[in-house]
Amino acid sequence: MNPVPSDCLAQGHRRLSTIRRSLSADILRFLNKSPENRAAGDNLRTRLGAFLTPQLLCLLLYRIAHYLHVNGWGRLAVLVTRLNLLIHKVNISPQSCIGAGCFLPHPVGVTFHGTAGRGLTLYSLCVCCPREPGVDGPAEAGPRLGHRVTVGGHAVLLGPITVGDDTKVAPKVCLDREAPAAVLVVSKAVRSVHVPSRPGRGSP
Fold it and tell me: SS3 for 65-118, per residue?
């Protein structure tokens, strides 16, 4: 079994209550992403409706798999991950450590093996994984993304690179090197456009 990262343990991912808190933040992020959802308000009915969408169910399965992994139930974690892949066509390894408030607008084809902070956004068919084939190794072999990072559709992030907070990776970019915080990455050469920070960026 791969060792569990210390920052993952610091976030309390061994505790079942962390699944509830993280999923609650995922639901709130989902509800705040569209005018229609915001107009409907944040209540039990809208949260239940959001929870039953593929975008949230695939995150629930990932968070269960991750909980099983950090508690030493590796085979069960892999089983839940394969179930997620079968049902939702999403491959997020149980070793991966993703903060609360994650958003997958179109989850089909997403592959992730690495670590990420709060407010991560992954678009359809994006890939974040180690350079070597397979996702059986430690999460540290894959990309390490900061808070509020967005990875566009069909983008590929390879290896143990660091991507700074509030950075956006444009669609179809293949990135295998570091990217600083608060930029828009538009090519592999990290030709980036600065994204000015806004007040209140501290929350997902």
Answer: HHHHHHCCCHHHHHHHHHHHHHHHCCEECCCCEECCCCECCCCCCCEECCEECC
1's tokens = 């079994």
- CA pair distance 3, 103, nearest whole angstrom: 26
**pTM, rounded to two decimals:** 0.86
User: What is the rounded CA–CA span in Å between residue 123 and residue 150?
Assistant: 8
- How many whole angstroms separate alpha carbon 143 and alpha carbon 129? 6
In a domain, 18, yes or no: yes
Query: Do you know the residue count of the chain?
Result: 204
The percent of residues above 90 in pLDDT, for the chain, comes to 67
Measured CA to CA in angstroms, residue 75 lies from 1, 18, 80, 107, 155 at distances of 10, 21, 9, 24, 30
What CATH number does the domain containing 76 carry? 2.160.10.10
Residue 204 lies in a domain: no
**Residue 120 CB contacts under 8 Å (≥ 6 apart), including other chains:** 98, 99, 101, 102, 103, 145, 148, 149, 150, 151
Residue 105 vs residue 189, higher pLDDT: 105
Choose among 83, 77, 79, 82: nearest CA to 97: 77
| Non-local CB neighbours of 35 within 8 Å, separated by 6+ positions | none
pLDDT over threshold 80, residue 138? yes
Q: How many structural domains compose the chain?
A: 1
Phi, psi of 196 (to 5 degrees): -65, 140
For residues 29 and 204, what is the distance between their CA atoms, to the nearest angstrom? 8
